[in-house]
Amino acid sequence: MQEITISTPYINLDQLLKWAGIIDTGGQIKPMLEDGLIKLNRLTVSQRRKKIYPGDIIDIEGVGTYKIIAE
């Protein structure tokens, strides 16, 4: 499990994936969400602007698992 550090109270899912270099553009997240590839704390996510907080765990099928930590 990799860690992603954020310096804000929360970050939107699409911004987080761009910031971490997992996707290059916000548009790349749409098919991932439609295919159910992204899970937040074991629940499938369908909202690209879902708020992600420190302590959350994101699992992206075929990519990896990430824990969000506060700076």
CATH uppermost class = Alpha Beta
**Total domains:** 1
Spatial order of the strands forming the largest sheet? 1-7-6-3-4
Radius of gyration: 11 Å
Please give the share of residues in helix. Answer: 10-25%
Proportion of β residues? 35-45%
CATH superfamily: RNA-binding S4 domain
Summarize model confidence as the mean pLDDT: 94
CATH architecture tag:
Roll
Mind summarizing the main beta sheet? 5 strands, mixed
* Form type: globular
Which regions have little confidence, pLDDT < 50, spanning 5+ residues? none
The total strand number stands at 7
CATH fold-level assignment: Structural Genomics Hypothetical 15.5 Kd Protein In mrcA-pckA Intergenic Region, Chain A
Provide the structure class.
alpha+beta
Count the DSSP helices.
Answer: 2
C-alpha end-to-end distance: 17 Å
H/E series: EEHHEEEEE
Give a written overview of the molecule.
InterPro entries: S4_RNA-bd_sf. This is RNA-binding S4 domain-containing protein. Pfam families: S4_2. With 71 residues, this protein is an alpha+beta fold. It has one domain: Roll (Structural Genomics Hypothetical 15.5 Kd Protein In mrcA-pckA Intergenic Region, Chain A). The chain is 18% helix and 35% strand. The protein is built from two helices and seven strands, in the order ββααβββββ. A five-stranded mixed beta sheet has the order 1-7-6-3-4, with no helix packed on it. The chain has a two-stranded antiparallel ribbon with strand order 2-5. β6 and β7 form a beta hairpin. It is globular.
